[in-house]
């Protein structure tokens, strides 16, 4: 288990991370979210022991993270960190050696992963000759060549098409099933919703929302109703409890203050004909994210 306890990080007088605490259990995928400059990268660097926290503690399986522990950590950075003049084989041998693996083990794992990602033919190709998507595959392989117990994924789907996103998803879920603790960060909230059981949203280094995703969605008061049928948007907007109503390609989307106002909308629809859809939906994480970040910035 990764445990972040009351961690604060200063750069001079600037507070990049402010009293942050969370845990990531074995076999759990945890979302660390925030806008640019929220403190995510600083947090990752502290977890990797690249920089030290000013206050608080970070432990993995009860032990302070040092060079022995980092051998069990994988990190896929948002910025590509590949040595592009090396071949794929040379690159992975280098990263594997940094994680204290012997050459035979590295090459055996490399062949298996190249096959899984469908790029066996690129083993002896220089990285700068590969497409962005295939470079991302190589970077991912470099992050998991040590079969990490803790894996940090920062924008892992960058440069990937939908087919390869599905491939990455399957590998991430395999790692989870094997017990790897995973921290997942992305600006794509739909990707976060696919994986993360728990999450933290950071604003200016401070947590503004944290917990299990299912509980966060349940506790978010604003609800959404999808409607298809013969209604007037001006009338929908006048219903008590309705915050807003918009026309969509297939019908209407109505936001209400909370679930107690559902019946008001339903009673209105009972007076209309040809209503073919009336569905109360959970809010999307993106809506909650925008709301919480906006609140933190006073918007």
Computed CA radius of gyration, to the nearest angstrom: 23 Å
Main sheet: strands, sense, barrel: 6 strands, mixed
Q: Trace the largest sheet across and list its strands.
A: 6-7-8-3-9-10
What count of helical segments does DSSP give? 11
User: What number is the mean pLDDT?
Assistant: 92
| Helix and strand pattern | EEEHEEHEHHHEHEHEEHEHEEHEH
How would you describe the shape? globular
**Terminal-residue CA separation:** 36 Å
Structural class by sheet pairing and helices: alpha/beta
Write the layout of secondary structure elements.
Layout: E1 2-11, E2 14-24, E3 29-34, H1 40-47, E4 55-60, E5 63-64, H2 67-70, E6 73-76, H3 88-98, H4 103-116, H5 132-144, E7 150-154, H6 162-177, E8 181-185, H7 189-195, E9 198-203, E10 206-212, H8 213-219, E11 223-228, H9 233-238, E12 242-247, E13 252-256, H10 262-269, E14 277-281, H11 285-296
Helix pairs in contact: 3-4, 3-5
Structural write-up:
Helix 3 (88-98) crosses helix 4. The longest helix has 16 residues, at 162-177. The strands form three sheets. This protein has a six-stranded mixed beta sheet. Helix 6 links the parallel strand 7 (150-154) and strand 8. By secondary structure, the chain is of the alpha/beta class. The protein contains eleven helices and 14 strands. It is globular and about 75 Å long.
List keywords for this structure.
single chain, 299 residues, alpha/beta, 6-stranded mixed β-sheet, 4-stranded antiparallel β-sheet, 11 helices, 35% helix, 28% strand
